[in-house]
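User: Predict the structure for this protein chain, please.
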Amino acid sequence: MIDLSASLDLKASNSKKLTKRHSNMIQNRFQPFNHLTMKHSIFLIVAFSLLLGFEQPVNAQKPAKPVKIIFDTDMGPDFDDVGAITILHALAAKGECEILATLASDGYPYIAPTLEVFNRYFQKPNIPIGFPGPDAPKFSCPNHWNDSLVIKYLPKLKTNADYPSATEVYRKVLAAQKDQSVVIVTVGFLSNLETLLKTEPDQYSKLSGKELVAKKVKNWVAMAGGFPEGNEFNVNQHAKASVYVFQNWPTPILFSGFEIGVKIMTGNKVATEGTKGSPVQWAYKYCLSNYENRQSLNRNSWDHTAVLCAVRNPEDYFYVIGNGTFICNPDGSNTWNAEKNSQHSFLVHKYPYQKIAGILDDLMLFEPKKK
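Assistant: Here is the predicted structure, written as structure tokens:
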């Protein structure tokens, strides 16, 4: 990991433009960066590495032990979550991770059932699923891909109400794990984490939520924010929760910011070469045809990168910049303080985008073995 010195002077501005719910839905999670200045040597190294093509990413080493993962996702309105959960199951099948739970952070009624569709398809129907509390944002997508997927693939129509609360699942699962053994990866709102941190002792543990996290969680990987500053969807759409969580989280955090996934385009391969009729192939083919009100070749890979770096060594794919502090403002915008060490770090591109996209695309072709 590369430490930023106090002399870092790197600024970039970006903003999330959220459109009306039933019109042009979230075509981009930010507006483009307006300016970028680079005066710190590490960022010059990164820039030259990209211009020169650099070497191929090293072959990732399999973790010595499977990484224990809790996957916390909004699973919409964007469909990059589909790629993320597919990659997670692919890595689990390789023995690189164990999926302890899959939790919904979007309160739209068909988010938790969407998680069940994929867990069942990948032959892991017993993975616990939880739904968020009443304060969580509720986003649907105009093309109704979640609803359509649930109707098409679940044997019985379900809604979030058919599952336990994410908070209960968090406490039950964490309490049963060894100390400092769990990696939480979030690719959505921080509603569940806020509620978890505020929980009191219960039948699962005598510890408060914050104490339980500090005892059981090794680190948290978040698709959140922009670096060195930003105003990103996952953070600003439940800003109150985001501010609380970032101010109170007791373990190291690794951020995969907006600027990472926005340049890594994936999905066409699974849409055209994936197993016809699988929920993964269906979701990508359907959403690429109409999510942006036009046919798209690929989609950004915001959530994929967080999952990849939660399981594998992130430095096999990116530079890791730290240690500093992620500052979350009341409106959900963020800045980076390089002078204060809160065990926060963020990813910076190391390799050409297409090389990382190829790795992700190949993982997204994963199919479960037929029984």
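The longest strand covers residues 318-328.
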